[in-house]
Each structure stands twice: as structure tokens, then as C-alpha cells.
């Protein structure tokens, strides 16, 4: 008796399995859809010894020649020099797949490209081709999957001349519609990810455990970074910048950073779960220092800091930092400081006619404990260009304490043209809030205290025009004034803060 194919369960199952298998990622020649390109079909070995980047490049070139597609990296370890992305390419890293940066002595990386004229930015931001994976002037590119990018032989020492070494795991320049998702990066070199002049960028659920910068977002517009974990003990974890690398002062704007974790544990101990305390404790979120264009319309929310420095906003190269909000930040074991906002005049921008400016900054709902005794919160503008419109609200800060009466008598220098780091200014004469050269400063629902007795005031204000304080609670050592108001502080309004009101009357 004749039986239709669909009528017999065994035959139907075999047909289904055949059709399903034909759509699995495999060598290009075996792929029924024609838009999946398995790198093994182009000669990749995946044994960690043979150089596989030429095969990966062949797969990318074949996909691009057909109008785009998915370049599939199956499980294995693929020793690689420079890999060249192209438009309309999805690089998919399977679980168990590792792209491993080759040693420098294999000469497998591209040399740094020439840079015409004077470089106003750091060398690491000047060159892009000396990278493990890079792309320039591309559209519609993505790197996703459960695999790993291991920088391997990438250089991380900024003292080594960048044109002669490869030092970035991923470098993207002037690209549009970019997605990075789900993979891990370890030992990423000077930059695990450097994106410059890119529009419509999404970075989601990427873990970076590296020795220097995690991800730098330079001169980028319309960017979302979400659900990322970044550990970088010796440099910054998540760092928006605005350099002059593109030959113009291009602003970084429309940036959203949400649900991220930054830390400064020993390199590798985030990925292995041991979370060992390191020596340098960088690993923060920092805007700047390179800031020729500046930053505008940026939001950071629901982020944690652990065993690293705190939040830093550093506009020092003549640009503007405006319309910036931070909400729901938690910090534990933050050496040196919790919040640092500064403008300066390093002025790494040609033909500059403006001073660095900062205005319209809101920081709310912050808990910071274990804060180092250098300082808690500091806000420092320029004498000729005050920071304008800053509001801090719902903040609880617990310092390690230990400040002395001698510390309380210090007069911190002006930043001027100096490198904009709190360490260059030194220990502050307060353990809580220090503000200088600010117009319209609002503080609401602030509580500061210390673990070890501290003989510095909780707050000091110098050259402030328009200071409004509501519900400020401060722990103070016996005989220490809770707050100091300099003579050049005007327009003071204090509510629900008895100790501060008394100090102001005196």
C-alpha cells in the first residue's frame, strides 16, 4: 500500500531532521541559505597554534561579496592577527569559541595608519588599524555570541610606540549601526573596545576583564551601553571621550548607560569569580579627560562601582559638558573619592576660543561607602567660568575618615592646565563635599559620615553664587565646624539643616 511522506512518522521525522540540519551553520559550500559562512569552510583550524585570521578574513570577504551575512566562528581557539570587518557583516562567536590575539613577534597585525598633522589626543586614540579586530567607515556590523575575545599578545603599555605594536581588541572608526552583544573580552590590551565617531551603537551584555581601558566611546552619537560588566584595575572601565582624533571638535551626545557594573579587581578575577582586590583600583566611569567637543544629553542609571574609584566628569579641553544625569548609583570600597566634577584649561584643541564649560548636571540617589580619605565629593569650576546648575540629591556617603586638623587647613590649588585628577590636587580639607567656582548649586537630602574620627569639616564652599541646601546631615568630630562658608559665597538658602544654619549665622 502506498503511503504519503507526511503520513509515516519515521519518514516525516527524517525529512524534518534533514531540513533542520541543512540550515545549521556549516561551511559556505554546504549552507542552503547562502548567508552563513563557517570560517572552518575557509581554512580555519581552531587549534590555537595555526594562524587563523587569514581564513576569518576570507569568510568575511565572501560574505561581503554576496551582500552580507553571518560569519560563524564555531568552538575552538583561533590564533589571530588583524581581522578586517566589512559592512553588513555579523561575526557570530559560538559558545566555546575564542579569538586569541597572536604574539607581536608573528607580525600578524596591521601597522598603525599614518596620521597627518599634529595629534592633540593620546596616541592610543590616534591609530586604529593596529588592532585585533577593526573596521572603518562601515555600516550594519555586529559581533555577538557566547564566545570569547582574548587579547593574548596585545600590548597594554602606553609607553610603547603605538605604530609598532597592536594594542586594541576591537577598534571601530566612523561606523554606523553597530551592535556588540553577549561575548566576553579578557586581556584586551590598551583598549578592550575603542569606538570613535560611530553613530547608532549598541553594546549589551558584554563582559570585559582587562588590564587597561574597558570601553572608550569617543565622539559617538546615539549610543546605548547596557547590562555590561567591566573590570579594569589599571585604567578606566567605561569612558566616554571627545578627542580631536577626527580632525574636529565633535561632541559625544545622546548617550545612555544603564544597568552596568564597573570594578577594579585584579585582572582575570571577574571572569573566574574570585574578585581579588588589586592595588590600583581604577575601573570607574569617567567622562574625559579628552574633551575637545564635550558631552551633551547623557544619562547614566542603575550602575554599581566596586573596589574602584568613583564617578568622574572632567571637561578640560575647551568643550562643553551639559544636560547630564546620573541616577541610582551604588559604590563600595571606592578609594580617593566618590564623585568628581571639574573643568580645566589643559586645552588640547587647536584654535580654541572658548573656556571649558559645564552646566545642567543632576546626580541623584547615590550610596557610597568605604570612600577614601582624600575626598568625598568635589566640584571645581574655573574662576573665570564657573560650573553652572548642579543639583545633588538623595546621597549617602560614608568615608573611611582619618583626616587631621592639619589636613583641614589645606588650601587646594586651582587645577588650571594640570592633568584633571583628584590625586594631583591631593587630600582635601573636608571629608564630605568641597565646591568652588560654581553658580546655582543645590544640595538636597544629603547625609555624610565617617568610620574613623575625622577632624575636617563635612563641607566647604568657595566662590559660590546661589547655594541652596535642604536637609543636610553631617557627622562631625568634637570641636570641628560642620561646614565652612567663604566670604565669596552668596545667595545662601538653608532649610532643615540646623547645624549648617547655625554655622552660616556665625
Give me a quick take on this structure.
This protein is 8% helix and 44% strand. The protein has 506 residues and is mainly β.
Roughly how many Å apart are the termini? 108 Å
What is the number of helical segments per DSSP (H or I, 4+ residues)? 5
What characterizes the major β-sheet?
A: 28 strands, parallel
Radius of gyration: 26 Å
Kindly name the structural category.
mainly beta
Please count the beta strands (DSSP E, at least 2 residues each). 34
- Shape descriptor reads elongated
Average pLDDT score? 92
Strand fraction band? Answer: 35-45%
Q: Report helical residue fraction.
A: under 10%
Low-confidence segments, ≥5 residues, pLDDT <50? 1-7, 10-32
